[in-house]
């Protein structure tokens, strides 16, 4: 069987991590942990949510792709994905749309891209409810990256599953159908 990487993308707060946890908890599809220079949020743990890096340690790693998002660096490594594929046929990864384009270009049909869409007002409310620091949240919402990721990029149109994540139950049901369609489960 072909190995698959389920690339979950969309703007911050659209529910990417929620879906990656659903894949882990319900289908035992592991998430590839990425690296960031961002400080941990309350409750986030090194090696579980991210590998939290300093600017120096971040620059020492080798990445398949890396991006700057709202003032912090994020990157994912081919080694981590290959290690996961040694044990599992499918894994998921949570990245911004620029990262998703990189995965689609590199892995073609083996990269199953799911783009999550939520309107700006709703996503802002969800990020406030999540407890994101107010000042940092405003900076993030105003960032070019966040604004860009509210809509699917041209490069992913027609090559991705688009889910409007207004209702988590319906979103999970749609993801379950995608797994069947892609012969992952
Ligand atoms: N359909 C939904 N309805 C209501 N709340 C939701 C829904 N989907 C996700 N959420 C909530 O919205 C918040 C943001 O979700 P999540 O952290 O999964 O987003 P994200 O895209 O991973 O964000 P980031 O990129 O900033 O890490 C969480 O508190 C989550 O529980
Ligand atoms: N291209 C990549 N994007 C990544 C990676 N790891 C996370 N992300 C995305 O960054 C933003 C901000 O994340 P947050 O945890 O600070 O809210 C979000 O869209 C993530 O999906 C990565 O390795 N590469």
TrEMBL record:
* Gene Ontology CC: cytosol
Boundaries of every Guanylate kinase-like domain copy: 3-180
Task: State the coiled-coil residue ranges.
Answer: none
A molecular function (GO) held by this record is:
GMP kinase activity
Q: Which reaction does it catalyse?
A: GMP + ATP = GDP + ADP
Transmembrane feature ranges: none
Q: Please provide the record's keywords in A-Z order.
A: Kinase, Transferase
Please indicate if the UniProt record lists Hydrolase as a keyword: no
Signal peptide positions on this chain: none
Instruction: Please describe what this protein does.
Output: Essential for recycling GMP and indirectly, cGMP.
Q: Which family does it belong to?
A: Belongs to the guanylate kinase family.
What this protein is called in its record is Guanylate kinase
From the broadest rank down, the organism's phylogenetic lineage runs:
Bacteria, Bacillati, Bacillota, Bacilli, Lactobacillales
């Amino acid at each position: 069987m072909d190995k698959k990487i389920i690339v979950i993308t969309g703007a911050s707060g659209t529910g990417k991590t929620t879906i990656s946890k659903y894949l882990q908890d319900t289908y035992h599809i592991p998430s590839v942990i990425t690296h960031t220079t961002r400080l941990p949020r309350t409750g986030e743990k090194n090696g579980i949510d991210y590998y939290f890096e300093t600017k120096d340690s971040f620059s020492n790693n080798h990445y398949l792709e890396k991006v700057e998002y709202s003032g912090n660096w994020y990157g994912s490594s081919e080694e981590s994905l290959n290690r996961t594929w040694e044990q599992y046929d499918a894994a998921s990864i949570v990245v911004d749309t620029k990262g998703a384009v990189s995965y689609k270009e590199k892995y073609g049909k083996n990269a199953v891209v799911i783009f999550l869409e939520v309107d700006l007002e709703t996503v802002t409310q969800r990020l406030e409810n999540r407890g994101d620091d107010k000042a940092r949240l405003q900076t993030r919402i105003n960032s070019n990256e966040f604004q860009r990721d509210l809509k699917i990029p041209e490069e992913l149109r027609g090559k991705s599953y688009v889910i409007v994540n207004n209702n988590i139950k319906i979103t999970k049901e749609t993801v379950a159908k995608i797994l069947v369609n892609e012969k992952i489960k």
